[in-house]
Design brief:
298 residues; alpha/beta; Rossmann fold; 7-stranded mixed beta sheet; Methyltransf_25
Amino acid sequence: MGLDPEVALESSLGWREWGRHPIINCYASARTQLIDAKFTYRLGIHTTPIGRALKYPAIGLERVSRRLRSAYQDLLFRRYTALHGLHYGPTGRGYQTIAGGSHVDHLARYHGQIPRLAVFAYEYADILRYEDGDTFVDLGCGSGQNIRFLAERYPASLVIGTDMNADAVALVRGCEPSASVQLSVGDMRDAEFLSLLMSDRVDHVVLSHVFSLIFAPSARETRELRQGFIDRVVEGSRKSVIIIDNFGKRGELSIAIEQKQRAHVTDDVMSYFSKHVEGRAFMVESESSQAIIFSRKN
């Protein structure tokens, strides 16, 4: 009786690879055995004596790993909720290159920026329905890359920009020639500030790589904060909301360290729009980014 084809193939591949990367292959083999032990146990599939012996240690290790990851994630949520304000504060790294510098330097920076919003405004015009004369609000406008685009493309429109960093807002204020641009310093995570900003409904809301920075001291509080935020901007917009950012898998929420005082959160942002039957949410992409567009029904 010949050797099982699968065993023969694994043996052939294994011996060739073991000589190249013994440590990595040892890890891969052990991990494969643990994953397979859990899989066969849960589905009631016949397995090897090794698989039967490993099923309980594998399940136990999975539970411990899940608890450790949850505790680690909540630690990061607590820590970076506090550090986030420092990163974008007067002495933080967020806009360190803006403070100081000449007006000529500021103008060069402002007009040399590439607006992330532009490609979506062109490619998905039928969904966004931007028109000259509409009102726009850019939440977390930073140094104004999208403010410049909107003010130039829609000169009859009121464009409102806000950011928590005073230096960034000052740069936009000092460089933007349009009188139709209104700017303010504020933290969009603050419910009172957001409600005041959105008290007069606008046509369009723009968030460009800032939604990933909206989080609270725990995963549960983060979901609640994000859902409340989406509810508020949807209610306050007449036509559309666009979130340009990185998004996570369905049902998953995670926080990752980016640098000493900054972390970012990824999760299933589409799910926050599911309750809003007054419009439809679309996932779209460009060559360099992706976005979720919520478009109100006509």
